């Protein structure tokens, strides 16, 4: 083999190798329903909060929506074939709640259930262990009309949804993620207003966070009761934090930010309740908590999912936001979304979570990068920066494993380019390029690198 025959990146020094991680390590890609499925009005699917939000002028940068997206609803066999051909042994997907409950009959929609049943069969046929996320942000609009996650009744609706899905898929799906990134659901959707439903009220956001955590905690025993050998967890978006300077005001701001970004979610999940200092800082915006809620939220889980993208640098900013903090724009190397590239942050974060909470097995349930990919005249997508991003993050992950952090799997975000929420289709995170005009899929160099890493040349 000459150097030219090597898969892109394989000749880089210190490149991680699959064998560094052990035979049982899970290697996947992650996706989410609203971002890839399309088929917005097919087989009884009803409106989601993202359909409504996307239809509101000014909310999505390119004015688009997930109505067609990658048309994965119809093209899933091809997409799962790609996953198999890359050599993945796991695949993380999410279930569109608006395909399952329409808010009228109270009964699950058979056509929606059938779709996910076929999808799961497709994964198993291709050697992909299914990892199902119940909630990756596409709440049915009819539930938002009844108050959304700020209403306690949505917790009950979620349990009905979890019940329906686990009854239908639980004979084949053991790994369940209740929620994806509750911080984003709560804060981006209900305080900052960047995400659906586009509300801007801090108290609402904290009530939403509470109900999301509560619905998680109540779903854990429900899923276990229905699914033999269930492994249940939650996926959080976490960032290692840096203080903007050594000035004690910046250091204190970083601590306040950490209270909301990290401890507000992890402390209750691991039985410590909401952090007292942060609770005092949020004052009247604190959520209504009923007796028994905190115990329910602390239901023991089987794993923790960590979504890692970048570290945040925090400065004191009196009067800015509810906690008087500001996240500074990144310095140094960034992706095209302006997110810092900091592979060591992944190892640092996993080690911290493990040390602080001992949550048991950790999985990197998302990690990836957005770059402005170009299809060459030869059809190749030379996404060197993403390939290097992936390789360097896997090198950091190898370090975490070597240091004894119990991380057991990695899901790259994302298999396909997709609808990147408020950024629409302007931002590409896929290992596989999608031409939205033709729906053609093309492996980028990063996908080829991952395939080579996984031993599928
Ligand atoms: C995460 C989301 C995921 C995707 C990536 C880039 O916060 O979970 O859906 O948008 O960011």
From TrEMBL:
It holds the Pfam family Glyco_hydro_1. The keyword Iron does not apply. This is Beta-glucosidase. GO terms for molecular function: beta-glucosidase activity. NCBIfam families: BGL. Coiled coil: none annotated. PANTHER family: GLYCOSYL HYDROLASE (PTHR10353), LP05116P (PTHR10353:SF36). Keywords: Carbohydrate metabolism, Cellulose degradation, Glycosidase, Hydrolase, Polysaccharide degradation. Signal peptide: none annotated. The active site is at 366 (nucleophile). The keyword Zinc does not apply. Belongs to the glycosyl hydrolase 1 family. InterPro entries: GH, GH_1_N_CS, Glyco_hydro_1, Glyco_hydro_1_AS, Glyco_hydro_1_beta-glucosidase. It comes from Massilia pinisoli. Its EC number is 3.2.1.21.
